[in-house]
């Protein structure tokens, strides 16, 4: 896949999740559904939980558009956790398929993006990006004279 197409995909997905985060914070009904405070209560969660989910979606969306494999991996895995909860919630509550297809579909997409951006070493997630260190000059052969014991130098 071309780099431009992948960048466009990341931006599109980030836009979707930013809109999702905004609707979680929206106090009333949205264009397509009732207020998330009501939806979360109907699903058996406290209404304030929508703010946690909205914050996670917003942060992860920002991480998806940062052109760094580590940031994109963290964004995709964060969304995988959120979407696992969303898909499970829809299954447990027997929501109709027309209302619950998006969470599992996005879960698969985020799984693929997490695999694409998988770090070579898990410790790379904990390290700060290394900057090239300044090299110290090596001493030349003529700068240091060594005296041999019992001999001439």
TrEMBL record:
Region: Disordered, residue numbers? 130-153
Under InterPro entries, the record lists: DoxX
**Keywords, alphabetical:** Membrane, Transmembrane, Transmembrane helix
Location in the cell reads:
Membrane
The way it spans or sits in the membrane comes to: Multi-pass membrane protein
Q: Which residues cross the membrane?
A: 9-27, 47-66, 73-92, 98-118
What protein am I looking at? DoxX family protein
Instruction: Give coiled-coil spans as residue ranges.
Output: none
The organism's place on the tree of life at top rank: Bacteria
Which segments show compositional bias classed as Basic residues? 144-153
| Keyword Transmembrane helix set for record | yes
Q: Where is it predominantly found?
A: membrane
What organism is this sequence from?
A: Streptomyces flavochromogenes
Stretches of Low complexity bias are at 130-139
